[in-house]
Structure formats: structure tokens, C-alpha cells
Amino acid sequence: MSDDTKSPHDSVGRVMGTEHTTTQEFRVALDSDNYLQLDDLVVVRSDIPRLGELHTYGVVTETEAIYEGATFESDTHRIAADGILPAQKVRSAHVAVTRVHPEVWVAPDPGQPVFRAAGVQRERALYVDEMERPLPVGVGRDGQAVFVDLDFFDGRKGGHMSISGISGVATKTSFALFFLRMLTARRDVVGAGATNLRVLVFNVKGEDLLWLDKRNAHFARDKKHADTWKVLGVEPAPFPSVAFWAPPRRQSSDAVVPDTGSRHQDVSAFRWTPRELIDEGLLRFLFTDASDARNQIPFIEERVRHQLSRWAVDVAGRPGAVVLRQPPPGGHPRRTTVKPAPGELVIDDLSTLVEAIEPHIDPEDGEPDRAWTGRVQAGTLSAFLRRLHAAVHRLGHLIKAGESRRIDRQKAQVTVVAIQTLHELAQRFVVGALLDETFRHKEQSGQRLPLSAIVLDELNKYAPREGTSPLKDMLVDIAQRGRSLGVLLVGAQQTASRVSPEVMENASIRVVGRLDAAEAERAEYGWMLPATRARARLLKPGTMVLSQPSIPVPLVLTFPFPPWATRREEVAEDGDAFDEIL
Q1: Which CATH superfamily is domain 3-125 in?
Q2: What separation in angstroms does the CA of 470 have from each of 47, 263, 291, 386?
Q3: Does the global pTM surpass 0.85?
Q4: Is 29 helix (H, G, I), strand (E, B) or coil?
Q5: Which own/partner pairs from 340-346 qualify as long-range (CB within 8 Å, at least 24 positions apart)?
Q6: H or E stretch including 231?
Q7: pLDDT digit string (tens) for 499-509?
């Protein structure tokens, strides 16, 4: 029997006729021997004059039960316990309409049978039949896959994803990694975008992401985990191609050792040379405090950055080191290498760079060089220098001459950059430098493919709602123009209300885990139904609310337990138990 010709015996109830049905919602009076639960998908067939049969699809948003015939609260005892009052127990369900087919928006007829949507009907309820590239991103209450229209993530019709929720409970990072695993594993869905796809992940707290290439010992304890992955069409396995990078430890020796606690093997240390800092204009990412934008510090920084690009000359025999030499009038020095003169300051780290800049702008040494500073007050110049000296202490170990140790994103499909040990200013510098490199490369190529995905947690730190900074400007630019260039942002934050509206508004796909009660009422979550907002305060880890342009109402889904480790103690020493359940 096809999905379109089910008999009344397959129904779960009837559209309630004691109140108005609408094109947005209706209620179902359930059969006494059946039930509906939250998030179940249903379909109703109505015979519309001059149109014919109309299918109305919906999702259950609430269920109720009541004794018909009870007048007072105490009647409950007389009906249920004593049996001295006649009454009928009635169960009902609220349904939010997701779709009508054909698309003629007419309310369903009261009294019509209501069926569970399965097979083709379920796909229509979720608009899967209209998605050119449906990517499974979890399972619904019925254990079947829930899909997202990939066109609204990878830039064809929209781009970017925003994930919000309480830290530690909403499992924001876990869902982001799961989504990336689906993106990298389902090449049949992603299509041409899967070729040479590169993912950049920032590890901003703990060392949870340094084990993505290792099996999770806890995965084998429950066979249901593997079964769910099979429903999604992906073999449960760690990420197959991952490269790990971490900042170098602060130490006096020349040895470069990654600053990690739990993992040292297969982790590379990264840093930039003074030459790279100057050529790529990374000086601006030393001034990422939003408060700096309210004064003339950005103006000074821009002048200093320009002058550095004109004056810096490479030092022979010392890769990445430079000296500052005044260029010829109206021109730039030729890109050659020179031997430093006796007593000439060689810039081989951030400390010596600040030392070389200071004489040009320090008001205490006399009249500042207006070519470097412009006409600004002495107090602003002093504030600029204070921030430079603070940067030396906070991220000086990230700038050092020598062999280039910049992060190579072509080394693996997924690049994890561990910045959790760095000062907040250093974290913003690394994020800004890598985002700028990624975006600049895509602008130069002018091509959307290959795709480049970026996962950034604690987005409110880097693109706050108030103020402005070079890093925030970079993220806004990515949010607004990135999808056309194939630069896709997966941003996570505890509170969407504290993130720049320009970033949030450009996220086509929005995902929410458990929310704080006050946060759930903010305007940023206006896309959620009232019932869904109430549920968001109680969601369990692994359960998320998904909104996408393809479907007019949010869906609740769960995503499977990860087969990759998230802590050192989770790493499976022996893969036999893991293999047994596959």
C-alpha cells in the first residue's frame, strides 16, 4: 500500500473541529489506541472545492490530555479512582504546518484523518524532495534522518552556520564537528565542493580537538551509536585527514616545541617572521580591542604599517629578519638582502620591531616623525606604544626570525589550530592572521571552489555586538561576502545577542542547543516557535533545534555520539572492540 492510499485504520486521530484550523496550525484529537509525541511528522488530506485533494504536512509541537466531562479539579478523583462520574479521557496534539501540497494555502478540513508522515510523505513534510543536495545532519524522533539543504550553506543560495547555547550543555562544538564530518564524508552530496575542501578549526578551550584522528573508547559501549551513523550514511570513524598546530612554548633555547599539555606527537609549532608580519600587514591584529576604535590608534597603526612596508629590507643570512632603512624619495627600497651596518638594529622578533618603531613615534624622544604618526596628540602616541609593549609580553613568542613556520592548510583536509594556551590578545591575533590569509587567498583566486570552512567558537569575543576592530571587520566581511568566494563560517557562541548583528544576519542556517531562559526570549531567536523556545531551556546534550530557509518551522533533532576522542583518556588503545560493532 503506497503512502498516498493509506486506509483510515492507519490514522492516529482526526483534525479537531471544536476550534478553527488555520494555514499555520491545527489540533488533532487522537484515537484512544494511538498517540503522537513531540516532533512527530503528520499529514492530512482535505478535499478542497475546485482544487481537489490537498495534503497538509506538519510537525507536533505540543501534546495534551484532559477528561471531558470534568468540571472541578476534584472531579479527577471521582472519575479516575471512584468511577462515579462519567467522563472521557481525550488526548490531543498541536501541529505546526510545515507545508501544503500543492502549494495552495488553505486550512485543513476538520474531522479529516491524520496520518503519521512516512516514506515519500515524510520527505515532502521536510521538503527533501525540493532539496537538490540534502545533507543529513541528525535524526528525528522517529529515528530517521533530518536533512539540511546544502545550497544554503556552501554559497549557492546562502552561506554560513550559527550555533548557540549554554557552554558545556548545548554541545555546540560537538555539533559543529559532527556537521563537518558529514560535510567531508558525504562527497556524494557535497559534489564538486568536496574536492580539495579545507576546514580550519580553532581550539579555543581545553584540548578537546587535539584527538580528532583517534578512536573514542566509549563509542563501542553502545551499538546504537553505530546504528545512528549508518542511518546517516557515514561509517563511524575519526577524521581521516587532520593536521594539528600549536604555538611554541616560551623558552630561551632555540628549540621550537609546541605548547600542548596532553598531546605532543604529530603536533607542529607555528609562528610568523617579522618579514611575514610586515608583508601581510598583521600589525593591525595587535590592536583588536574594540575600545581602540574610539580613538586615533587605528589611524597611527595604519601609518606605521605603511611605513614598515616601505622601510623594511631583508637581512642577508638571516631568513625572516629585516632592518629599517629609509627608502629613496617617493619610492620603495628594492627587495634585496643587505648586510646590517655596525650598530644597526636587526629586527628578528616582536621586541626588536617595537624597539625600531619607537624612535619614530615616541613623544618623549622629541618631535615624532609625522610621516609615521600623522598629527595626533602625544597621549594617543603613548597609548599606541603601551599597547605595542603589552603585545610583546603577550604574544612576542609568535614572532621570530628563522625558518618559516606558518600554518600549512594544504597539509591535511582538517587543520586544528590550538590557541587555548595563549593570552586573549594573542588568540585574536592568530585568528585574525589566519582569517586574513584565507580570505585574501580566495579573493586573489576569485573562485568559489575549492570551499574553505572555518569553525570558530566564542564568536562573541571576536565579533562583539558593540564597538569595532580589525578582527570584527574581517568577520563581518566574511559573513557578507564570504559565501560568494567559498569561505564559509561556522560560528558558535553562548549568546547570539552578544554577537555582531551583521554576522548573525548572514548565517542562513541556525542551530540552537539548550538556552538560558532570559537569552531564549531575545529577538535573535525570533525564528523559533513559542513552544520551541520553551523546550530550548530544557534540551539535553546532543539535542538541537535547526532552522533553515528551506523549511518554514524549526526542527528538533539529535546527532550521534562521536567516534573520535575528545580527551586523552577517551583514546582507544585497542581498536578491536570498536570494530566489533561496525
Answers
A1: Translation factors (2.40.30.10)
A2: 59, 33, 12, 19
A3: yes
A4: strand
A5: 340/315, 346/315, 346/318, 346/321, 346/322
A6: helix 223-231
A7: 999 999 999 99
